[in-house]
Amino acid sequence: MTTATEHYPIGTPGQPWGDVEKLQWLSQQVKHRSYKKDVISKVEALAERFDVETYGQLNYGADQYPLYAIRTRNWQANLPVVLVTGGVHGYETSGVHGALKFVEEHAERFSKKVNLLIAPCVSPWGYERIHRWNANAIDPNRSFRDNSPAEEAAALIRLVEPIQKRILLHIDLHETTDTDETEFRPALAARDGKFSGPHIIPDGFYLVDDTEHPQPAFQKAIIEAVEKVTHIAPADSKGELIGSPITDKGVIRYPLKALGLCAGMTPATFKTTTEVYPDSLKATPEQCNLAQAVAVQSAIEFALKHG
Question: Peptidase M14 domain: which residues (predicted)?
């Protein structure tokens, strides 16, 4: 169990940040890895087998980040669309590399059954800095709504808008990490002038279903598939995960659209958010990536059978 600190080192407790505090926070963000080396190089290598496009560009000071999407070739108007998104929170590594693993190893076998659209790294600035927010201290995964304040979210909305009514399935690949509790929740509380109480970080994989349009059989099928490659998070002593009641093994529910979450951005019949726990002593980085790729495969298989 990790617990949040009561006072974040930036700002005054109980007072929301202004421009000064946001600039102070921004000045402390450091690049730890390369989006070009880790992501763009892999996406460009896939261009021999898939259609690769840029759907926007982020400009943060001197840093420019092209946003890439991957499509299966020979889209067919009579086929449904499957949307896979990763790296909406840039620091959640297996979301990015799990999406790329799925494309590299499995996407082609579905290409005659569905049209696939994959955005593997929605937040490259956050990817490089291993951060949840963008450079403006905004969480993209609370920003999928009209007039979005996060360009990461707005760009993805523009990409998907022409085809959103054809989307059968949207699976959004995430992680829950120890730094959610030690860094990101305290930072959020400080930014908004609130107090951050402690939470227990679940040890294992879990899913977030849609409160407004639940699909319990769909979520269960993914859990059963992923359980073959990594462990599923058990409920805490209150029968909850991350403060939400468990509705089935390894599944909780959020009102996806109301919260501005990426998984709620379309009217897809089947929606889910994966949550991998990379800090577990029982899971390797390879297992985390594999769990994401397996989740995508099992989600597509279920949607094709029951959609």
Answer: 31-307
Q: Indicate which CATH number applies to the domain containing 39.
A: 3.40.630.10
Range of the domain at 132: 19-306
Q: How many domains does the chain have?
A: 1
- What is the model's pTM? 0.96
pLDDT 10s digits, 115-160: 999 999 999 999 999 999 999 999 999 999 999 999 999 999 999 9
Assigned token pair, 54: 């840029």
